[in-house]
């Protein structure tokens, strides 16, 4: 099963499980590995393959042909030693894309120093994201990279009823309205799009500017 569209997810706690199920939903083949028998049972039939194994054992990973996967996710959180050992074994096996969950900044630094290509901080990132939602009127906030975000929000009065090509939103506010939702349907914007008061819009730009824009009434 180890093809381009196949991922091995190690640790099927809340994070690993949600990630593995979402990958399945999008048509990706998933090998789930967890050391807990009950967790493995609970995922039986939901993932392409699910096995009970200790991911800190090199021999086990070799027997499971983990080295043939192009992507692997280390979703073990509580046991930092198991997380680091697993990541280091995946590197040793030569898997090109390794994603590992870090529970703290020092933990993330160790993973980076090891050479893990993608270190993720689910709790920290979600906390930051919710902070933006709590502060403003945004319906969703996703930081794409350092200082750049995409936000789902209601349209401010000044852009309603004017074709976007004439609304000068980018020059006045430094953001771009990329899509809009009308009656439950999302569409791309064009220069001719006229936003209505009942629409929901998706804007992209520098984090501070999208936040300021979504605060306009
Ligand atoms: P959550 O995603 O629920 O927040 P967490 O960060 O609290 O999870 P844990 O519950 O410690 O992390 O680990 C996630 C899963 O990883 C658990 O189901 C656990 O059984 C599994 N796990 C931990 N160590 C190993 C290991 N060495 N080999 C395989 N699976 C492991």
Structure in words:
The relative contact order is 0.10. The protein has helices at about 15-25, 35-45, 60-65, 80-90, 105-115, 120-135, 170-175, 205-215; strands spanning about 5-10, 30-35, 50, 70-75, 95-100, 120, 140-145, 150-155, 175-180, 185-190, 200-205. The protein is an alpha/beta fold. Helix 4 runs parallel beside helix 5 (about 105-115). It is elongated, with a radius of gyration of 21 Å. The strands form 2 sheets. A 6-stranded parallel beta sheet has the order 3-2-1-4-5-6, sandwiched between helices. It has a 5-stranded antiparallel beta sheet with strand order 7-8-11-9-10. The protein has 2 domains: about 5-120, Rossmann fold; about 125-215, Regulator of K+ conductance, C-terminal domain (Alpha-Beta Plaits), CATH 3.30.70. Strand 9 and strand 10 (about 185-190) form a beta hairpin. It is about 35% helix and about 25% strand. The chain has 8 helices and 11 strands. The structure holds adenosine-5'-triphosphate (ATP). Adenosine-5'-triphosphate (ATP) binds near residues 10, 35 and 79.
Salient structural properties:
217 residues; five-stranded antiparallel sheet; 11 strands; six-stranded parallel sheet; single chain; 35% helix
